[in-house]
Amino acid sequence: MGTPSNIAAKTTASSGEDYARTMAHGERALNLMKQLRTPAIPRNYELLFAFTTSTNKELCNALRKALETDSCLTEEAAERLYQTFLTKGDISDKVDEVGTQVSQEMTDIMSVIEAASERTGSYGESLQGMNAKLSGIDSPQQLKTVLAELFETTNDMAEYNKLLEKRLADSKSQIDELQMNLELTRVESFTDELTGLTNRKRFDQSIELEMSEAEESADPLCLMMLDIDHFKSFNDTHGHQTGDQVIRLVAHTLKTNVKGRDCAARYGGEEFAIILPKTKLSAAITLAEQIRVAVKTKELVKKSTNESLGHVTMSIGISSYRLGETIPEFIERADVCLYAAKEAGRDNVKSETDMRDREVATSAA
Length: 365
Hints:
- This protein is an alpha+beta fold and 365 residues long.
- The chain has 11 helices and 7 strands.
- Helix 1 crosses helix 2 and helix 4 (75-135) packs antiparallel against helix 5.
- It starts with a helix and ends with a helix.
């Protein structure tokens, strides 16, 4: 059975080997990134890191074919490979890994506690034996011998207790770190990698939760759908890396303008969504105009050449939750407003108020 000292030694040795191995793979991945002139974003690093470890043969083969075809790792190829080989089981794999580590740590702790229990039992038996010896002492020399034995046994127990305390303290630190890793994995599973905004999965959960709460409290709830104007032609003209720069710029603007419980999400591609709990339609319109102007006033500069690419505009549609409606209905009404904003020439905001006004005007005509 393992003692605290040898268990700690094994853990330290294993950690050192893991560190050396992963650092070597990491350096190879960074070198590949430099050779291929691939943008240093987390997704690309994860792809190349997985390639250097050769743990996923299908990914390695697909990446080689992509490089043979284009002689570089294009944005489209990186996204396709990542979605195909890494995202499907990535989060669940990480959760399973942390769970296994926690289980192993608990097993080790139980072994340590069991060993400590046996050691304590042996110490108790030793004390009982010495008590019997003390009752039969008839000379100072015998007393000295028994006391020396008692001191040695007690000193051994004290040293063992120190090792036990250190092992348990190390174990607590390890479990705290695993809990933090699990929390980071949870956050990662809800975060869009390119923008850092809430992803579609988390958006779907959030809107259901906020609609349920609005149903119970009758508080106002608004949904804003936002789309970058002419993004496809911009992407085709200037390239996907510059397109990603535009998406990140818009995301940063959303982050700086959305506060509190409001949830800004990347809905898909160049489309974004903002859930606005406890917000009236008039306040949502004000915020939408604030975002539209903030995006439009930012000049886009191509990083590689410092060339000015002008300004980006957005079309925005807003709906206000109606008690009893479904999630698709709520989103659909915001989309209708968004399309109306595009039809009106883009770079503007349309809400349900505008839709009603248009219906009234149409009826009057």
